[in-house]
């Protein structure tokens, strides 16, 4: 089965930065939306950021707004999540996702789970600790 491949996780101190990368097995333009979810221990899975392929509109969870930036590179079939000013509560496993469903008119629908994400990467661990 074709799979998204995420990388870039690691250990970072509070206030530091990390850049996550996700490479898709097909042309990224074949998806309707791509994004990032995270799952912290003892917490529900959270849609961190999503982007609509059609117009590049973005959604960010309130907890990361102003600190994280999602972007994509069509030529590399890649999606990135730049994480700055990181906090201990950013710790978790981060998953890149992609959806082939066109029913979402806003990126929030894909990050909220209202529209299913068909493809999930294997996850990359991010730990923010001093």
What is the first-to-last residue Cα distance?
38 Å
| Overall strand count | 11
What is the number of helical segments per DSSP (H or I, 4+ residues)?
Answer: 1
Q: What order do the SSEs take from the amino end to the carboxyl end, as H and E?
A: EEEEEEEEEHEE
The helix content is: under 10%
Low-confidence stretches: none
Report the major sheet: 7 strands, mixed
Helix-strand category: mainly beta
Q: Identify the overall geometry.
A: globular
- Give me the Rg, rounded: 14 Å
What does this molecule look like?
With 130 residues, the protein is mainly β. Helix content is 5%, strand content 43%. It contains 1 helix and 11 strands. The strands form 2 sheets. Strands 2, 4, 5, 6, 9, 10 and 11 form a 7-stranded mixed sheet that branches. It has a 4-stranded antiparallel sheet with strand order 1-3-8-7, with no helix packed on it. A hairpin with a 5-residue loop joins strand 5 (46-52) and strand 6 (58-60). The relative contact order is 0.31. The model has no long low-confidence stretch (mean pLDDT 93).
